[in-house]
Amino acid sequence: MDDWGTLPGLPDEAFEHDGLITKLHQRACAFALLRPLPGQLLWDIGAGSGAMAIEWCRAAPGARAIGVERKPERAARARRNVAKLAPGAVEVVEGAAVDVVADLEPPDAVFIGGGATSGVLDACWEALKPGGRIVFSNCSLDPREGEDLVAAFLRETPEIAADPVLPGELP
Question: What's the average model confidence in pLDDT over 49-65?
Answer without folding.
Answer: 94
